[in-house]
Structure formats: structure tokens, C-alpha cells
Amino acid sequence: GGRYRVTRLLGRGGMGAVWVARAQQTGAEVAVKLIKASLLDDPAALQRFRREMRVMAGLSHENIVRGVDAGEDEGVLWLAMELIAGQTLRERLDARGRMPWQDSLGVVRQIARGLGAAHQAGVVHRDLKPENIMIVPGEDGAVHVKLLDFGVAKASHADGGQSSMTGTGFIVGTPGYVAPEVVLEGKTNDPRTDFYALGVVWYEMLTGQKPFTAKTAFALAMRHAHERPPTFNEVAPFAQCARRVSSASLF
After folding, report:
1. Alpha carbons 52 and 35: distance in angstroms, whole number
2. Cα separation, 87 vs 64, whole angstroms
3. C-alpha closest to that of 114 among 163, 63, 165
4. For residues 47 and 53, what is the distance between their CA atoms, to the nearest angstrom?
5. Is 149 a catalytic residue?
6. Tens of pLDDT along the chain (251 residues)?
């Protein structure tokens, strides 16, 4: 759009690539998400990307990545966001394993605050998972959390409240983090499904593993709906001290 000059690649995903770019007027660096060229003729993909552009424009909170700008250049949609120096929670768990419960509590508090702000703005994330949570180290040793990727979010101001089922019957979200009623009953996502996903994420942070695994999304949802997940003591004895953490302490 004549406003940013792309400098280097940050990463690639299902919808496209994220690049570091420099603002022509100020010199400030931002992260720019570009939709894949192969998706430019896909109406559903374009709708999803445009929804993310509208969602980001309506969110402002310290625990949510900040949208800076958006536009279209020669038919290519782009979204500029603040550039964050850190690692995803998935990268953190893969590199260092399970997290001490004291550290996890600070991360979960910030995730919950970011979700709360989104919900107050009429936005349900619908794909909360460690890959979409950024951990940013602070100068004082503390960590700051940012929620990423609102590409499948449901927003009352962006799409009129779409259901959790797509037109072709696919479930929105990532198996293992989606609430079972979404998969089994096709219920429309609401804020409670984000907090269900947060519970799964917290379990994974404390134990180093997901509560359930299965070969299909349906089988996984059935396990979530009907089985008791292994206790902390069964999979990670160290985590039994986490019993001292009450839900009230989250907020």
C-alpha cells in the first residue's frame, strides 16, 4: 500500500505468511500478515481474513496483540500488527517442558484478562491454544502475555454472529481444545468455550501433556465429554501442589 516495506520473513501458517516490515513514514517495525496467493480466489478464505481485519480493529487490550493497520495491495489483503519479541507458549513448552504452577498462574491470569476484554467487545476467539499465546520476557524478569490469531474469531460486529459450524460442516477450532458440545452438538461458540480451551491449556502447562489424545476430532470430543482426565498426581506428581490454586485466585 505504499506505507510499509517488507524486510524479512517471520513465519508461515495455513492462511499465509507473517513478515517484518518497516513503516515508510516513521521507520517503526511492524508484523505484516499477508494472505496466501493460492487463497486469493477462495471466497471463504478472503471472508475469514477480512473478518480478522475487522476484529483486530475493534480490540484494544494489553494482553491482545494490537492491530496497527490493514488494507489491500493489488488484490492482496494485508494486516499490520505490533511486532512482538518473544516465543509462543507452544515453543516454551516444547523447549522447557511443564511449567511451575506459580509461573503458570501469572500466565493464565493474563490470558483470562485478554479473553475477558475480547468477550466484552463481543469477540470469541474460538482457537485458543499454546500456538496462539505469545510469551514476552520483561526487563524485571516477569513475563507479558499476548493473545494472537483472531482469524476464526466470532465477532458480533464483524460477522453477525456466525455459528461454530462452517458451511461445509467443518468445526472451527483445534481438536483437543474445542469444547465437546461444539463438536458433538454443533452449538454456537460463546465465551465459555474460550475458557474451556484455557482450562485445557493450563492442564498442558502444568503436566506437559494434553488431557486426552485420539485419532479423530469426534473421538477426541467424546473423550472430553465422557472421560475423566488423568489427575495431576497420575501424570506429574510434582503438580499436586497446584491444588492450592483456586479458581478465585485467577482474578
Report:
1. 11
2. 15
3. 63
4. 10
5. no
6. 789 999 999 888 777 889 999 999 999 999 999 988 888 888 888 888 888 888 888 899 999 999 999 988 888 889 999 998 889 999 999 999 999 888 999 999 999 999 999 999 999 998 999 999 999 988 777 889 999 988 788 776 555 444 443 433 445 678 889 888 887 787 766 899 999 999 999 999 999 999 999 998 888 888 988 999 998 888 876 544 545 554 444 44
Considering the entire predicted model, what is its pTM? 0.83
User: 186: closest CA among 162, 160, 163, 219?
Assistant: 163
- Give the active site residue among 41, 69, 94, 127: 127
CA distance 61 to 154: 18
Find where cell 493450563 sits.
202
Query: Which three three-digit cell numbers place residue 197?
Result: 480451551
